[in-house]
Amino acid sequence: MNASLRRVILFLALLPSATAVSGESSAAPPSFRVEVMAVLSKAGCNLGTCHGNQNGKGGLKLSLRGQDPAADYAALVRDSGGRRIDRFEPAQSLLLQKPLAALPHQGGRRFHRESPEFAVLSAWIASGATDSSGPDLQSIEVQPREAVILSPQSELPIRVDAVFTDGSRRDVTRMAVYEPSNFAVSVDAAGLVRKQQDGESIVIVRYLSQQVPIRVAFIPPRPMTNLTGSGGTPIDELVCRDLDRLRIHPSGIAPDHVLMRRLSLDIAGILPAAEEAREFVADLNPDKYERAIDRLLASRAYAEHWALKWSDLLRNEEKVLDAFGVETFHSWLRDSFAQSKGLDELARELLTSRGSTYTIPATNYYRANRDPATRGETTARVLLGVRLQCAQCHNHPFDRWTQDDYFRWAAVFSGIGYHILENNKSDKLDSHEFVGEQLVEVKAKGELKNPSTNQPAAPRFLGSDRAVDLEQDWLHQLANWLTATDNGAFSQAQANLIWYHLLGRGLVDPVDDFRATNPAVNPPLLAYLATKLSEHRFDVRYLLREIVLADAYRRSSEPNRSNLDDEQHFSRAIVRRLPAEKILDAQSQVLDAPSRFAGFVFGIRAGQIPGVRREAKARTGDNFLRSFGKPQRLLACECERSNETTLSQALLLIAGPEMQERLVQAGNRLDQLSSSPLSVNDRVTELYWSALSRAPNALELQEAVRAIDETNNASEAMQDLAWALLNCKEFLFQH
Predict the structure, then answer these.
(1) What is the mean pLDDT of each run of 10 residues along the chain (735 residues)?
(2) Which of 28, 286, 326, 456 has its CA 20 to 30 A from that of 643?
(3) Longest pairwise C-alpha distance within the chain
(4) Which pLDDT score, from 0 to 100, does residue 80 have?
(5) Prior bond to 152 cis, omega within 30?
C-alpha cells in the first residue's frame, strides 16, 4: 500500500460515523482551548522553565502559562511542519512521544499512557487536531476555600469545578494545577493535600486562565482558645479571632523597658534616653503608655523617621535628583509628616506636580522616574501595592493584569516631559546623572505603543473601566481616582505599609504584592485598618497610635508551645535586626559620640540624612550604612533594603574603625562616666540604661563591677563593657 492510499484510508477512518452523526453515541472530541490547554498546563509544558520560556525550549515556544491559546495552537499544529502533530499516525506525534519519554525529552516524562493527560491529547489528535470553538471559561469554584485540620488527620481533598460562559459546569479537579506556597504541604495530581509539617499554607489552584487561593492549616493537637470577645481593642478582637481559629495562645505583654524601647525605635527611629526609660519604668500611672506614644508622635524625630522611609520608596538619591534636589524632596517629606499631611494629599501632590524641581519639591517624584513605564510601575507599587513589571512582556502569570492593562496604565504617564535648565554632571558619558535645575512639564498627550498590537495604548487607570478624558487634566483625574474613598486599593496598601513597619511583617507580605493569589493573612483586620485610615483622612499618626495601643503590638517576643512557629498571625513580637540607620544612631547615642558622614555637618544622625551619599569620598559612617544594608534607592521597593547579616557586618562591629574611633573618643559618655564621682555600680547601671533601656540584673552587675575593679584602667574597662553591650543581641535586635 502506497503512502497516499494509506493516508486516504486513515482520513476516511477519522470521519464521524453515521451513528455519531445521528447522536446515538460517541462523545465530542476534546476542545483544544479547554482540555488540551489544561493538559499543557498540568504537565508543566508552558511554565517559564520549559516551553513557556521567553525563547522557548527545544524549538517549541508556548505562551507562558497558556495565556495565548491561538498562538499555542499555531506553534503546535501550523508552524511545526507536521513534526509535532501527526494526524495520519496520531501515536507517532511528538506531542505524545516526548512527554511519554518514548523519545529523548529534556523535560523528562510528563505523563503515562494510562493517564488522563495522554487520553486527552491522543483523542484530540485522532479527531483531527482542530481548534474548535466552544464556551469560554468564566470562573472556577474551589472547595474548601479555607480549612484548619487537627492532627492526626493529615489529608484534605480539594474539588475544583469549572463554570463556562454557556452556564455549563465541569469537575476539573484532576486537570487543575496546584501550587503550594511553602513546604508545609504537598498536593498530588488529583488535588489531595497532604501534610508535610505543621503550619499554614496557601495553595494556588489554577485552571486555564483562572487562579484561586485556598488557605490550609495543619495544626498539632492542642487546647482550644477562647480569646475572641475577651476585650481589648478592635484590632485585638480581629487578631484573636484568627488565633482562635488556629488554637494559638498569644504571648504575654512585654515588660515596660522593652515596650519603651520598641515604641521609641518604631515611631521615632531612636533609642529612648536613659532618663526617659527610667521614668517610664518607674511610673505607676496607668496612662503612661499613652503619654509616651503622644510624646513620640509629637517629636521632630517622628517626622524625620517617616521621611526616611518614604525617601527610600520614592528613590530620593543624588545621582538623578542631585544633592540640592534630594535635600528639597526630603525636607518636603519631613514637613509633610510633621504637619500630619494625609497620605492621600501627599499622593495627590506627587502625581499632579509640575514645575521646577528646586522650588516645587514634589516634582522630584517625576524627576526620579523618567519614562512612562517606570512611572507606571512605581506608582502602582508605592501607592497601590501592586507589582506590574511582569505584565510588560506578557500577561502577569500570578495576577489578573494583562499586557494591555500594563501599557494602558503606563500611557497615563506618557505626556510628562522635562526641560533641563542645566546639567553640570561629573560624568559626561552617564545619561542617568543630572546636576542642575529641571522643569517637569505636562505636554500634549504622548503616544505609547503596545508592542503586542503595535498600536497606541489608550490611557486607562489600573483596574478601572473608566476611560481617561484627554480633554481634561489627566493627572488630576488620576489623583482623584487613586485617592477616592471608594478606591480600597490605596487605603489598604498604605494601612498595610504602616502595619509592616510596626509589626515587622505586612498583613499582605511582601507589602507591594497585593494580588488574589497572595491574600492577606487576616483580611478582616486589613479591611478595618484601611477603613479607619480613610475615615481619619489618611493621618499616619492616627493609625500608628491605634496600632501601638493594641495588645498585638505590645506582645512579648518570648514564645510559648503553641506559637513557637508562628511568624504571621501576630501572636508574639517578631525578633528582627535593627536597620542600618537605627544601629548606627543607637551606637552614637549610647556613646554620646556622633558618627561622621561625607558632606554633612558633624553631629547629624544617620536617620536625618536626606539621601544616600552626598560626596564620592565616603567617611566611616557612610561605609557602615552601606555595609548594613542602607538601600541605594535605585528601586521603589522595600525589598531593596537588606537586613541580612554578613561577615563584614560582624567585623565592623567587633573591630571596625567606626566602632573603635568612637569608643576611645575624648569626651564621650564613657570618658564622662570614668571621670564622674559616681560609684562603679552606678556607672555600670547608667550604661545599661543608655544601651538597653533597663538596669543590669544582679549577675550582670556583679560581673561588670568585678571586671572594672580588677583593672588598673577604669576608662578602658568601661570601653570594654560598652563594646560588649553594643555587640549583644539585645542591643542589635528589636524584640
Answers:
(1) 42 35 53 92 89 86 88 84 80 88 87 90 90 87 96 96 94 95 93 95 94 95 86 93 95 97 98 97 96 98 98 96 96 98 98 96 97 96 95 82 92 92 87 93 81 89 86 91 91 98 96 93 97 97 98 96 92 96 97 93 95 86 94 93 90 88 92 90 96 97 92 88 96 93
(2) 326
(3) 114
(4) 65
(5) yes
What is the rounded distance in angstroms from the CA atom of residue 505 to the CA atom of residue 238? 17
User: Residue 409 carries which side chain, given as an amino acid letter?
Assistant: W
Average pLDDT, the chain: 91
Residue bearing cell 566602632: 659
Question: Which three cell numbers, joined as nine digits, stand for 110?
Answer: 510528563
* Pairwise CA distance, residues 668 & 513, whole Å: 45
Cis ω for the linkage preceding 510 (within 30 of 0): yes
Which cell is 509 given?
Answer: 507580605
Q: How far is CA 288 from the centre of its chain?
A: 35
d(CA 700, CA 694): 12
Partner residues linked to 155 by β-bridges: 194
Whole-number Å distance between alpha carbons of 300 and 160: 55
DSSP per-residue string spanning 115-140: SHHHHHHHHHHHTT------PPEEEE
DSSP letters for 413-478: TTTEEEEES----S-TT-TT---S-EEEEE-SPP--EETTTTEEPPPB-TT--PBP-TTS-HHHHH
| CA-to-CA dists, residue 541 to 280, 339, 532, angstroms | 21, 10, 12
Cis peptide before 144 (omega within 30 of 0): yes
DSSP string for 538-577: T-HHHHHHHHHTSHHHHB-S---TTTTT-SSS-SSPPPEE
Q: What angle do CA 355, 356, 359 make, to 5 degrees?
A: 115
**DSSP assigned state of 98:** T
How many residues are recorded in the chain? 735
Grid cell listed for 582: 537605627
pLDDT for the residue 617: 84
**Alpha-carbon distance 434 to 71, whole Å?**
44
Q: Grid cell 509628616 — which residue?
A: 337
pTM for this predicted structure: 0.91
Compute the distance between CA of residue 567 and CA of residue 573 in angstroms, rounded to an integer: 8
8 Å CB contact between 276 and 302: no
Distance CA 31, CA 642 (A): 49
Of 261, 331, 345, 343, residue with least CA distance to 300: 331
Cα(283)–Cα(289) distance, integer angstroms: 10
Which H helix or E strand runs over 671?
A: helix 669-674
Task: For 182-292, list the strands marked E by DSSP.
Answer: 185-187, 192-195, 199-207, 210-219
Instruction: Judge whether 232 and 267 are in contact, CB under 8 Å.
Output: no
Question: What does the buried/exposed string (b/e) look like for 551-584 if buried means 16 or more CB atoms within 10 Å of the residue's CB?
Answer: bbbbbbbeeeebbeebebbbbbbeeebbbbbbbb
Cα-to-chain-centroid distance, residue 236: 24
In order of their start, the domains of the chain are: 27-126 (no CATH), 137-219 (2.60.40.3450), 342-484 (no CATH), 577-734 (no CATH)
